[in-house]
Specification:
This protein has 306 residues and is an alpha+beta fold. The chain has two domains: 14-93, Phosphorylase Kinase, domain 1 (2-Layer Sandwich); 98-279, Transferase(Phosphotransferase) domain 1 (Transferase(Phosphotransferase), domain 1, Orthogonal Bundle), CATH 1.10.510. Helix content is 33%, strand content 17%. It contains nine helices and ten strands. The protein has helices at residues 49-55, 57-67, 112-131, 158-168, 184-187, 195-211, 221-230, 245-254, 266-277, and strands spanning 11-12, 16-24, 28-35, 40-47, 80-84, 87-93, 95-96, 98-99, 144-147, 150-153. The strands form two sheets. The protein has a six-stranded antiparallel sheet. A hairpin with a 4-residue loop joins β3 (28-35) and β4. The protein is globular and about 55 Å long. The protein starts with 10 loop residues before the first strand and ends in a 29-residue tail after the last helix.
Amino acid sequence: MTAITQGHGEVLDGRYRLERELGRGGMATVFLAEDLRHLRQVAVKVLHPELASRVGVDQFLHEIQVTARLQHPNILPLLDSGTKDGVPYYVMPYVACKSLNHSRYHGRKRPLEDVYRLTRQVADALDYSHANDIIHLDIKPENILLSEGHAYVGDFGIARAVCDRCLAEGREYSPFGTPEYMSPEQATGADVLDGRSDIYSLACVVYEMLTGAPPFRGITAEAVLFHQVTSQPRSVTAVREDVPPSVDAVILQALAKLPGERPATAGALATALVEAAGASRWHPVATGSRGSRRPANTPGSVVELI
């Protein structure tokens, strides 16, 4: 496998002409591209060859095919996928927004009602994906895009593909995900992972939105994972006085080490959060479980989703 490094002018499958690199991370490189068939800008995410080798092209494309069927107002849709010189890629809308991690509140405490609203939207996306037997396994601020107050969850299927391949081939377990937002069971390589792992990750994101930092940090990834498995997070109210103790209790429940002690669904977490806050003036936007509202006119930079 060889990396797609040319970028400008290179055409994938005779359809997507790469214009420039938007960014790169540990998993993939993202390019701005022109869809020559529909004459529109798209974002093309190309897996790094070493990760593609680890996952397997067929396994990756299968996961992409499955997750491409997800149609929800809070899920960034997948438009297409393919391979170039044995390296898989997939295509998403090029949307003009920033990730939660790169918003103006990154590292700062968000307004409470903003937290409740975004939590509800992400929870709606997770409940929908879980109902379709798809677990994200890498919920984190970088994978939550914001456009005019609306949240879109991206990168479904990537972590699942890696985990499934490792388990299928009996490889030594190496956690794939982001340590600061990884559930204890994912960190320790549990044979079975379900939606409650995503609920834990969402709780880590909520904790960070409220306090400005995730529940656990460390010098190394191993140190963070050790805390995820063994340590109790600091109370939110100890960091932020305007958070009601009842909200703190809901978050700490969602951060329980045992999956069975967490809320049963992401929606249950979001509802409990709002009820605990007594936010009677805040009303979540109703979304259909199979809605088709897409970010066609909510442009943003998918460079964040790497």
